[in-house]
Design goal:
alpha/beta, 7-stranded mixed beta sheet, binds pyridoxal-5'-phosphate, 486 residues, 16 helices, Aspartate Aminotransferase, domain 1, 2 domains, Aspartate Aminotransferase, domain 2
Length: 486
């Protein structure tokens, strides 16, 4: 489809701000070309002299492919060093080192862009060919780009009933009205979305045209949307002309079944490394993304290396149709520009060495690590938490266990006490006992309307041998609070 068709189809979705955004001033001059034979001496850009970049060499050490490990000690059987040397053209590992440290790479350094595009193709096979990417400094700014691209002041935005607090805080200053869609343990319920759209009350303003969702390992509920639900939601998006923003930092942390053993996982990893079957076996196990279902370019997918490599890399990318990616790039040209060249060089060093298969193998190792952690937390929860008041489901992806407390079992001294205050009282008591989850009310755009009590427990970073004592402390606090004899 020519780029102009995306303009025709999606131009009306651009925010006023994005429509008003012109090209960067230098692009007008860059379009004018000189005679190809001429030896052009450029006095144009105010770019600094590369020989005065004091960074001469960058090296990165990381685990060698196939030498990953299951346990959590910071030792790997074999590590590899990759370096990029400004002083030696032969030692730059196929990277334009100077270019990576220079201005002018807003999309991202070409070598990394190429790697990530191939990765997107392998992982999602987007069904239209003009899709493009823009490297970002992670999903927080990725979402901010999407919001500035699409949202006008005072609009209504569709979100999951419980959602990522930074998304709420990013959109709230735009006067956004959040329209919460009901969820269950399998994520957003398509019928609830349909109800909202079908019965839209125009006195509330125009029909929403943006759906923000965290389909996999949802933050905070840990739920994962099935392919069946995604297809239904995609069909509704087409019918009601909705743009889907899929925020997917946990997409690749889709886990094994609760009863899968570590030794099975180790054998599988070994096999996959030896016979290069990892590509197909890895991708086939993932729930397909919205991007994979998007034939028209109505999905903006935001991905992050934060949970896959390190949050401090501040690297991620957005995938979408060429109109949206161009407008996002224009916004970046006057704000973040490209992500840090140094960060991109380091990441390229790792990925270029691992190659696509090795990256998937690494992601597989992460899946095993978080599967073990999820299982350990679930075991402790099952063992210690009072069943009469606690309910939770095993997450299939991500880093979070979402626990609801049965409010009806709470013997109120003050019947009129708001639920959010009770939740905070419990939180306070938990802190005194030495255990710290996150209160459910943080994940709601309008907590004052909420009447349920939740806590989110992350199993990603606490020492795994402390999970049991953490759950014991949680349980004993609840027993006191709810005056239980269990
Ligand atoms: N989006 C969601 C749903 C998240 O849970 C998080 C991190 O916790 C982020 C975005 C932030 O990602 P990044 O570190 O890439 O900015």
């Amino acid at each position: 489809m020519p780029a102009s068709n995306f303009n025709d189809r999606f131009q009306h979705h651009l925010s006023r701000e994005s429509r008003a955004r012109g090209n960067g001033p230098f692009q007008m001059l860059d379009r004018l070309k000189c005679n190809g034979d001429i030896d052009l001496i450029s006095f144009s850009g105010g770019i600094p002299l590369p020989s005065k970049f004091p960074i001469r060499k960058l090296s990165v050490s990381f685990p060698e492919l196939g030498c990953f490990q299951e346990d959590e000690h910071n030792k790997y059987p074999k590590e590899v060093d990759v370096s990029f040397d400004m002083r030696n053209d032969a030692n730059t590992n196929g990277l334009d080192f100077e270019g990576a440290l220079q201005y002018g790479q807003c999309q991202g350094i070409p070598e990394l862009v190429k790697f990530i595009k191939k990765h997107v193709e392998l992982a999602h096979s987007p069904p239209y060919k003009e899709w493009d990417i823009k490297l970002t400094n992670g999903n927080t700014i990725g979402l901010e780009y999407c919001v500035r691209l699409l949202v006008d002041y005072g609009e209504s935005i569709l979100i999951e009933k419980y959602t990522y607090p930074a998304a709420i805080t990013a959109m709230a200053p735009l006067g956004v009205k959040f329209i919460s869609i009901d969820m269950d343990e399998n994520g957003m319920i398509p019928q609830s979305l349909e109800e909202v759209l079908k019965k839209w009350d125009y006195s509330k303003g125009p029909m929403p045209r943006i759906l923000y969702t965290i389909p996999t390992g949802q933050n905070p509920t840990g739920s994962t949307l099935s392919i069946d639900r995604k297809k239904k939601i995609m069909a509704l998006a087409r019918k009601y002309d909705i743009i889907i923003i899929e925020d997917e930092p946990y997409y690749f942390l889709q886990m094994d079944a609760c009863n899968a053993t570590t030794s099975e996982a180790q054998i599988e990893l070994q096999d996959a490394a030896e016979n290069s079957a990892i590509l197909s076996s890895f991708v086939n196990r993932l729930v397909p993304s919205f991007l994979n279902l998007d034939t028209e370019g109505r999905v903006l997918r935001i991905d992050s290396f934060s949970k896959l490599i390190a949050p401090g890399s501040r690297l991620g990318w957005i995938t979408g149709n060429p109109l949206f990616i161009d407008r996002i790039t224009r916004a970046a040209e006057v704000s973040t520009e490209s992500p840090s060249g140094i960060s991109q060089i380091v990441l390229f060093g790792i990925l270029n060495h691992w190659k696509q298969e090795g990256f998937f193998l690494w992601l597989r190792e992460l899946q095993h690590t978080y599967t073990n952690r999820r299982n350990a937390l679930l075991q402790s929860a099952d063992k210690y938490l009072p069943k009469s008041i606690c309910s939770y489901r095993a997450p299939k992806a991500g880093l979070f266990l979402w626990i609801e407390l049965d409010k009806s079992r709470y013997l109120f001294d003050d019947q009129n006490k708001p639920v959010s205050e009770i939740e905070l009282d419990i939180f306070q008591a938990l802190l005194q006992k030495g255990v710290k989850p996150v209160c459910g009310q943080l994940f709601m755009p309008y907590p004052e309307k909420n009447d349920r009590i939740f806590f989110r427990f992350a199993y990603s970073v606490a020492p795994i041998d402390k999970f049991e004592v953490g759950m014991k402390r949680f349980a004993s606090t609840l027993k006191e609070f709810f005056r239980l004899n269990e």
